[in-house]
Amino acid sequence: MIIVATFLQALAQILHMVINIYIWVVIIAALITWVRPDPYNPIVQTLFRLTEPVYALVRRYIPTVIGGIDLAPLIIIIGLQFIDMFFVRLLMQFAMRLGA
């Protein structure tokens, strides 16, 4: 049982790190759009490829442009924070109970 608990704790920590990294990717991508970046820059292209599919998913269900400002990054960050605070913590608590 302790092996399963340790595995779940490790999985929760990795998920937490991935969520935090993706939040930073969304923040950086949103900030870059304010300065009209070169669309042929490989960093800009990578950020676009990492964020645009998720933006499109959110935009499909929620109108995100209000007053000329796209709120899709904010909605995604809030959603990721919810996943991190609820599901990752729930997974961690479950792992701790298995190990006890």
From TrEMBL:
InterPro entries: CCB3/YggT. It comes from the Bacteria. GO terms for cellular component: membrane. The chain crosses the membrane at residues 12-35, 71-92. Keywords: Membrane, Transmembrane, Transmembrane helix. Pfam families: CCB3_YggT (PF02325). Belongs to the YggT family. This is YggT family protein.
